[in-house]
Amino acid sequence: MGSLLDIRNVTVFRGRTRVFDRFSLQIEEGCSTAVLGPNGAGKSTLMKLVSGELHPVFSPDSHIRVFGRERWNVRELRSRLGVVSHDLQHDYLSCARGMNVVLSGFYSSIDTWRNQVFSETEYRKAEEVMESLGIRSLKNREFGSMSTGEQRRFLLARALVTDPGTLLFDEPTSGLDLKASFLYLEQLGALMRCGKTVLLVTHHVHEIPPGIRRVVMLRNGLVFADGTPEETLTSSLLSALYDYPLHALSLSGSFQVFPASGRPEGENAW
Ligand SMILES: Nc1ncnc2c1ncn2[C@@H]1O[C@H](COP(=O)(O)OP(=O)(O)OP(=O)(O)O)[C@@H](O)[C@H]1O
């Protein structure tokens, strides 16, 4: 297994905000990793850097290498790295039919277009992926008329249709109810067990499913802690990361946090 991500000395601005200042992070292929941090930590910026939607300030000693390469054509990259992002769900055309959402993964486009040609094999693959995610019966439905959970599964199908070895998720269960969240996280677990590498960014501890081997805690554009879930998802590190007293619990490889019993100092009693 080689390098999935190699970020060295990268400086990134969004508007006037310097989100990363000579930031470095390496992730190996095969090591499913969660990037966890509070609002504004830089998680979405990191995800956009990896997916090629954002670029750092040029510096001779900095680089971003995905699978060992600095330059990718988007279509080629998507055949190795599938992306299921929040923005994508938001941007997707509500009139696109389910089948077209999945097929659009072959071109990394939003919806399919007249000039795009799909082979029988590609149609078959799309059917197969929809079947495996339990959404085949919705293939003719408009994206806009699907529930958030169904939309999320179609976007996962879109990412999986090219059979990438690595999948990138941005807050995978946001907007999903409890059952849909757990089913979706089980799906992520199944993908990891089938050999896919999952890279996810989240601000929720419960979104880190069993099978994630490494947690990178991010705060103010810096790596705050880095280790296995057992090493990092502790009450003391989580309390420090979120600057709030928290109590962490784990059960069968899943994690959950609660407010610690003591109120934060200075908070008014009700
Ligand atoms: N378009 C923008 N213009 C200016 N500043 C921005 C822009 N987008 C993000 N930022 C700033 O960059 C910093 C990092 O934002 P980013 O969205 O990467 O954080 P995040 O960890 O993903 O947060 P969240 O969990 O709330 O999504 C924040 O301080 C944010 O205010």
CATH structural fold name: Rossmann fold
Strand content: 25-35%
User: Mean of residue pLDDT?
Assistant: 89
Distance between the termini: 54 Å
Q: What's the number of extended β-strand segments? A: 11
Largest sheet: 6 strands, mixed
Q: Ions, cofactors, ligands: which are bound?
A: adenosine-5'-triphosphate
Total domain units: 1
The multimeric state of the shown protein is single chain
Reported CATH architecture = 3-Layer(aba) Sandwich
In one word, what is the shape? globular
Order of helices and strands: EEEHEHEHHHHEHEEEHHEE
**In DSSP terms, counting alpha (H) and pi (I) runs of 4 or more, how many helices?**
9
Residues in helices, as a percent range: 25-40%
The neighbouring-strand order within the major sheet is 5-6-7-3-8-9
Stretches where pLDDT falls below 50 for ≥5 residues? none
3D architecture notes:
This protein is α/β, with parallel strands linked by helices and 270 residues long. It has one domain (3-259): P-loop containing nucleotide triphosphate hydrolases (Rossmann fold). Helices cover 30% and strands 26% of the residues. The chain has nine helices and eleven strands. The chain has helices spanning 43-51, 74-78, 86-91, 98-103, 120-132, 148-160, 178-193, 229-232, 235-242, and strands spanning 3-14, 17-28, 33-36, 63-66, 81-84, 166-170, 197-202, 214-219, 222-227, 246-251, 254-259. The strands form three sheets. It has a six-stranded mixed beta sheet with strand order 5-6-7-3-8-9, with helices on both faces. A three-stranded antiparallel beta sheet has the order 2-1-4. A two-stranded antiparallel ribbon has the order 10-11. The protein is globular and about 50 Å long.
